[in-house]
C-alpha cells in the first residue's frame, strides 16, 4: 500500500507538473505573441519615423533642387535672370549627371524651365527697339545658359532688318502725307517723342554721337511747316539712321572683340568662339552696312533725284509726287544735313569704302544744286525786266546792270557751301559734263539778261511800265527829253539800253567773270567771250536802230531843203549866207546831241559821229548828182559844205571826212581871190550868228570815242 501510495503520488505529481508546464507554456506563448504584436507596432512606427526622418533629411538636404523649378519661375517673373543662371549652374554641377530617379525628375523640370527662359531671352534679344545695354545683357544671359546657335549674330541680323524697316516706313508715311493723307504719328515714326516704343525718340537721346546744331536741334520747328515734304523726310531719315547705326555698329564691335562676355578665365572660351564667328561673318556684316547705306542713299535719291534711280528701283525707293524741283536753298539745306550725317557715321570709324556711296550722293546733290540754282537765277534775271524803272543816274545808267550783278553775286554766294569741298569730297567740277553744263547755264544767264535789255529797249510804248519813271535830277533836262513820271520815248529807251550795254561791257561782265573764277567755275573765258560777243551784237543792233530813228529824218530833209523854191545850181544868185535847210539840219543834229547828252554824255561822240557820217554821205551824194554848177552855185555849195564840216569838226571820222572831200571835189574850184574872201566872210557870219546853237559842237576833241 505505501508503495502504491508513493507511486500514485508520483504519478499525480507528474500529471500536475505536466499540466502546469503546459499551462505555463501556453501563457508564455500568449505573452510572447502579445509582446510580438506590441513590439511590431512600435517597431513599425519606429521604422516609419526613421523613414520620415530620413525623407525629411533628404528634403532638407536637397531642398535647393526640389524648390528650384518654382524659384526659377518666380525669379524669371521678377527679371532676376542672374539668380536663375547661378542656380542653374549650381544644379547642373550637382545633379546634371545624377542616376537618382527623383533627382533626375526634378532636374528635368529645371531644364524645361531653363529652355523656356532661353526662348524668352532670345525673344527679348530680338525685340525691337532695344538699347545696346539690354542687347549685351541678353546675349550674356543666353551665352551663360548655353543657348544653341549664335544669339549675338541673330541680334545683329534683327537690328539690321529693323533699321531697314524703319527707313522704308518713314518714306511711306511721308509719301502718304504728301499725297494728302494725314501722317500717322505712330511711335515708330515720331522722332521727337520720348515715349517707348519710339526707337528714334529714345535712341536720339541715348546715342553716343552728338551732332551739335544738326537736325535743327534747339531751333524752332516752324521751319518744318514751310519746308517741302522731301526736305523734312531727309531730315528725319538721316536722323533715324544716325540714331540707330551707332548701337548697331558698337554691337558688332563688341561681337568682334568678344567683349559681349566677361573677361574672366571661364568665359575665355566663349570669347574665342565669338571672335572666330565674327571673323567668318565679316563679309556678311559688311553687306548689312552696305545695304543700310544703299537704302539711305536710294531713299534720298528717290525723294530728290528720282531720275538717278534705275527703272526697277523707283517703286521701292520713290513714289513721291514731285510737281516742281526743290530750290537751290532747300537743296543746300539737304546737302548740309547729309554732310553732317556722313561726318557722324565717319566718327564711328566705319571704313570709308562703306561710306563712299554717301559721298557719291553728296556730289550728285551738289551738282544738282548748282544746276538748279543757276536755272532759277536765269528765271530771276528774266523778271528783272519788270523792275526796270527807267530812272537814269548821272552816268546814264538805270539800276538794271547793278541788279543783274547783285543777282549773280547773291546766287554764287548761296552756292559757296556747296562749291566748297569738305574733307573727303571731290570737286563738283571734276566731271567734264558738269563743267560743260555749268558753262552753258552761265552763258544762258548772261544771254537772258541781254535778251531782257533788248525786250525793254524795243517793246512798244504801251508795254512799258510807267509807274516809276524819272531821270536823275543832276542830269541836264534839255529839249524836254525825259521828265519826272513821264514815259521815255522809243529813242530814249534805246539810248538808255545803249548806255547800260556800254557799262555792262566795261564793268559788269568783267566783275561777274571775276566772281565766277573766285568760286571755281570752269570755262570762265568762254563764258565771258560768248557773252561779250552777244552783248556787242545787241549794242550794235540797238545803235543802228537809234541812228536810223535819228539820222534818217535829217538825211531825208536835205534834198527837199536844197531844192526848195525851185533852187537851181546852174542859175542862182550870189550867196548871201547859209540857207535855212542846213540850219534846220544842224538844229536837228543839235537836238540829237541834247537827247543823247541828257541820257549819257559818254554816248555823244559815238552817236554824233554816225549822224555826221550819214549827213555828210548824203550831202556828198547830192553834190555828185548835180550835172553842172554855175559860179554862184559852186560858191553856195562850197559855203554850205564847209559850214557843215567846220561846225561838226570834232565828230568827223575818216568816213565823214572822205564824204566831205568827195562833195567838195564834185564842185568847180574857186577861180578868184574875191570868191575865197566872200566864202570866208560868209562862214564867219554863219558861225557868229549861230554861236549859241553851235556851242555843243565845241567840246574837247579828247572826249571823242571811236565808233
From TrEMBL:
InterPro entries: EXOC2/Sec5, EXOC2/Sec5_N_dom. The keyword Cell wall biogenesis/degradation does not apply. It comes from the Eukaryota. GO terms for cellular component: exocyst. Keywords: Exocytosis, Protein transport, Transport. Residues 3-697 form the Exocyst complex component EXOC2/Sec5 N-terminal domain. Pfam families: Sec5 (PF15469). GO terms for biological process: exocytosis; Golgi to plasma membrane transport; protein transport. Component of the exocyst complex involved in the docking of exocytic vesicles with fusion sites on the plasma membrane. PANTHER family: EXOCYST COMPLEX COMPONENT 2, EXOCYST COMPLEX COMPONENT SEC5. Belongs to the SEC5 family. Component of the exocyst complex. This is Exocyst complex component 2.
Amino acid at each position: 500500500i505505501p508503495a502504491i501510495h508513493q507511486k500514485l503520488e508520483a504519478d499525480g505529481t507528474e500529471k500536475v507538473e505536466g499540466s502546469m508546464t503546459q499551462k505555463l507554456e501556453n501563457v508564455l506563448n500568449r505573452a510572447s505573441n502579445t509582446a510580438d504584436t506590441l513590439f511590431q507596432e512600435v517597431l513599425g512606427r519606429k521604422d516609419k519615423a526613421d523613414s520620415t526622418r530620413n525623407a525629411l533629411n533628404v528634403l532638407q538636404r536637397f531642398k535647393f533642387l526640389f524648390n528650384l523649378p518654382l524659384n526659377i519661375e518666380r525669379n524669371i517673373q521678377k527679371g532676376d535672370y542672374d539668380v536663375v543662371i547661378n542656380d542653374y549652374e549650381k544644379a547642373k554641377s550637382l545633379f546634371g549627371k545624377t542616376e537618382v530617379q527623383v533627382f533626375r525628375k526634378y532636374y528635368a523640370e529645371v531644364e524645361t524651365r531653363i529652355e523656356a527662359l532661353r526662348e524668352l531671352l532670345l525673344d527679348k534679344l530680338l525685340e525691337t527697339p532695344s538699347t545696346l545695354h539690354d542687347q549685351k545683357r541678353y546675349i550674356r544671359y543666353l551665352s551663360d545658359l548655353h543657348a544653341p546657335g549664335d544669339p549675338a549674330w541673330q541680334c545683329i541680323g534683327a537690328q539690321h532688318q529693323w533699321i531697314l524697316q524703319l527707313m522704308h516706313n518713314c518714306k511711306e508715311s511721308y509719301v502718304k502725307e504728301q499725297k494728302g493723307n494725314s501722317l500717322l504719328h505712330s511711335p515708330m515714326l515720331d522722332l521727337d517723342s520720348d515715349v517707348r516704343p519710339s526707337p528714334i525718340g529714345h535712341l536720339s537721346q541715348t546715342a553716343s554721337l552728338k551732332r551739335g546744331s544738326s537736325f535743327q536741334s534747339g531751333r524752332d520747328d516752324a521751319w518744318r511747316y514751310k519746308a517741302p515734304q522731301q526736305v523734312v523726310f531727309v531730315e528725319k531719315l538721316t536722323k533715324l539712321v544716325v540714331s540707330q547705326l551707332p548701337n548697331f555698329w558698337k554691337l558688332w564691335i563688341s561681337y568682334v572683340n568678344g567683349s559681349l562676355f566677361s573677361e574672366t578665365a571661364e568665359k575665355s572660351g566663349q570669347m574665342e568662339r565669338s571672335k572666330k564667328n565674327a571673323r567668318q561673318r565679316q563679309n556678311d556684316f559688311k553687306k548689312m552696312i552696305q545695304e543700310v547705306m544703299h537704302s539711305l542713299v536710294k531713299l534720298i535719291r528717290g525723294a530728290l533725284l528720282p531720275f538717278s534711280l534705275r527703272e526697277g528701283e523707283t517703286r521701292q525707293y520713290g513714289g513721291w509726287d514731285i510737281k516742281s524741283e526743290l530750290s537751290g536753298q532747300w537743296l543746300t539745306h539737304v546737302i548740309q544735313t547729309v554732310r553732317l550725317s556722313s561726318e557722324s557715321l565717319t566718327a564711328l570709324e566705319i571704313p570709308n569704302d562703306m561710306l563712299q556711296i554717301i559721298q557719291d550722293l553728296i556730289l550728285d546733290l551738289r551738282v544738282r544744286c548748282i544746276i538748279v540754282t543757276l536755272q532759277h537765277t536765269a528765271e530771276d534775271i528774266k523778271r528783272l525786266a519788270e523792275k526796270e524803272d527807267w530812272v537814269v543816274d548821272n552816268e546814264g545808267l538805270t539800276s538794271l546792270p547793278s541788279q543783274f550783278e547783285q543777282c549773280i553775286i547773291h546766287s554764287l554766294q548761296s552756292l559757296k557751301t556747296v562749291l566748297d569741298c569738305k574733307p573727303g569730297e571731290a570737286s563738283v567740277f571734276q566731271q567734264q559734263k558738269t563743267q560743260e553744263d555749268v558753262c552753258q547755264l552761265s552763258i544762258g544767264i548772261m544771254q537772258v539778261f541781254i535778251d531782257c535789255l533788248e525786250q525793254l529797249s524795243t517793246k512798244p510804248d504801251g508795254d512799258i511800265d510807267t509807274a516809276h519813271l524819272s531821270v536823275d535830277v543832276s542830269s541836264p533836262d534839255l529839249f524836254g527829253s525825259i521828265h519826272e513820271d513821264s514815259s521815255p520815248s522809243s529813242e530814249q529807251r534805246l539810248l538808255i539800253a545803249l548806255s547800260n550795254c556800254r557799262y555792262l561791257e566795261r564793268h559788269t561782265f568783267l566783275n561777274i567773270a571775276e566772281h565766277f573764277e573766285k568760286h571755281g567755275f570752269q570755262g570762265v573765258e568762254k563764258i565771258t567771250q560768248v557773252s561779250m560777243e552777244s552783248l556787242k551784237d545787241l549794242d550794235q543792233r540797238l545803235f543802228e536802230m537809234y541812228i536810223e530813228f535819228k539820222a534818217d529824218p535829217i538825211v531825208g530833209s536835205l534834198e527837199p531843203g536844197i531844192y526848195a523854191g525851185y533852187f537851181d545850181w546852174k542859175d542862182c544868185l550870189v550867196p548871201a549866207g547859209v540857207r535855212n535847210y542846213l540850219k534846220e539840219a544842224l538844229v536837228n543834229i543839235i537836238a540829237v546831241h541834247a537827247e543823247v547828252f541828257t541820257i549819257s554824255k559818254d554816248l555823244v561822240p559815238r552817236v554824233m559821229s554816225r549822224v555826221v557820217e550819214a549827213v555828210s554821205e548824203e550831202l556828198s551824194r547830192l553834190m555828185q548828182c548835180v550835172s553842172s554848177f554855175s559860179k554862184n552855185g559852186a560858191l553856195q555849195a562850197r559855203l554850205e559844205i564847209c559850214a557843215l564840216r567846220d561846225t561838226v569838226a570834232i565828230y568827223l571820222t575818216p568816213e565823214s571826212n572822205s564824204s566831205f572831200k568827195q562833195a567838195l571835189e564834185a564842185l568847180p574850184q574857186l577861180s578868184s581871190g574875191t570868191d575865197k574872201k566872200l566864202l570866208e566872210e560868209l562862214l564867219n557870219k554863219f558861225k557868229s550868228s549861230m554861236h549859241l546853237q553851235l556851242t555843243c559842237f565845241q567840246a574837247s576833241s579828247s572826249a571823242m570815242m571811236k565808233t
